[in-house]
Design brief:
Layout lengths: L1 H29 L20 E7 L5 E17 L4 E8 L5 E7 L3 E8 L4 E10 L4 E11 L8 E5 L4 E5 L3 E4 L3 E6 L2 E11 L11 E3 L1 H41 L1
Parallel strand pairs: 10-13
Antiparallel strand pairs: 1-2, 2-3, 2-12, 4-5, 5-6, 6-7, 7-8, 7-9, 10-12, 11-12
Helix pairs in contact: 1-2
The structure holds 2-acetamido-2-deoxy-beta-D-glucopyranose (8 copies).
The site of one 2-acetamido-2-deoxy-beta-D-glucopyranose has 3 residues, from loops.
């Protein structure tokens, strides 16, 4: 009789252990392998850009567009004498960047001028008044780059990035790449932007991007698995106790 009690205790202990091992294996699959050590980098990309605060005010003095974001510009320049494509990655320094622009009922233009007019970057946000959704619809860039005679320019007016709802802000903590043309893309870092429907000087409720939600999913799964494990251990303990109790009674 007593052996069944011991036996159930063994089951109660081994089951969580097996589960823990399985869980650990699952986690090991999720975590990325360590980054390979690069001995000789062909060119060094700049570090993460600083996060800037850009604000547009409407004619009556209220803030009509607010953006917190770190921006990194990625230019690909074909260099004829060297017969190859050069990559130029520039961080937008918020300390030397001015925000200009205008807010209209269905569109907002944010123009960032940085580095003593060497780079002009324009973002156009469009509001769909039927669906009350907004998005980044157009990006224009003009930049004077070293190793280039003519200024670099690129434009795309059929973009669909940073989608949000009127009265709310768009947020993405993760790094995101906004591809504008074959030769130009923007890496964004920790974006929070609201181009329409600001209440006072504040952001509305934030709508998180998919990348952030995917990132949050892993802790949620781990949390749920751990909760399940605790429940199993508890059940095993209760069953074990009941059995050993019953064992004592029959003796
Ligand atoms: C300021 O102008 C915007 C539109 O340009 C309007 O939505 C807002 O209500 C105005 N605010 C005040 C205080 O008049
Ligand atoms: C810049 O763009 C090129 C080509 O699209 C890409 O290979 C490279 O990884 C990008 N660099 C950064 C820092 O995003
Ligand atoms: C953009 O890239 C293409 C090839 O990918 C090249 O032919 C073109 O000259 C580039 N434009 C600029 C402005 O560098
Ligand atoms: C430039 O590159 C192309 C292909 O990438 C090659 O066919 C051509 O011979 C190269 N020209 C020179 C001068 O290196
Ligand atoms: C911008 O200014 C702040 C404080 O004035 C400084 O800490 C920061 O390093 C500057 N950023 C850059 C990229 O120069
Ligand atoms: C606005 O949204 C509605 C509903 O989603 C859609 O049918 C319409 O085509 C959109 N308008 C524009 C200009 O994109
Ligand atoms: C950026 O805009 C300013 C003001 O309009 C202008 O003076 C400057 O030449 C522009 N820079 C480039 C690279 O086009
Ligand atoms: C503009 O962006 C759209 C959507 O990302 C892309 O399909 C299109 O090729 C781009 N146009 C140009 C000229 O790069």
């Amino acid at each position: 009789m007593q052996t069944t009690g011991v036996h159930s205790w063994c089951v109660g202990l081994t089951l969580p252990l097996i589960l823990a091992a399985v869980l650990h294996q699952g986690l090991a699959d999720v975590t990325p392998p360590p980054a390979p050590v690069t001995t000789a980098a062909p060119h060094t990309d700049p570090a993460r850009p600083d996060r800037g605060t850009y604000r547009l005010t409407s004619s009556n003095g209220t803030t009509c567009l607010l953006a917190y974001m770190g921006l990194q510009l990625n230019f690909s320049i074909s260099s004829l004498p060297q017969n190859k494509t050069l990559q130029q990655v520039l961080n937008v320094n918020p300390n030397t960047t001015k925000a200009l622009g205008s807010c209209e009922a269905e569109s907002a233009h944010l123009r960032l001028t940085t580095d003593g007019d060497k780079t002009n970057l324009t973002f156009v946000f469009t509001l769909n008044t039927t669906s009350d959704k907004y998005h980044l619809s157009e990006v224009t860039v003009k930049a004077v780059l070293p190793e280039m005679k003519d200024p670099f320019s690129a434009q795309n007016s059929s973009l669909n990035y940073l989608r949000g709802t009127l009265g709310r802000s768009y947020m993405c903590r993760e790094e995101q790449t906004l591809s504008v043309s074959a030769n130009f893309s923007i890496n964004t870092f920790q974006v929070q932007v609201q181009p329409f429907g600001l209440k006072g000087e504040q952001f509305g409720a934030a709508e998180e991007c998919q990348l952030d939600e995917d990132d949050m999913l892993i802790p949620i799964i781990v949390g749920a698995a751990l909760a399940g494990l605790v429940l199993i251990v508890l059940l095993a303990y209760l069953i074990g106790r009941k059995r050993s109790h019953a064992g004592y009674q029959t003796i």
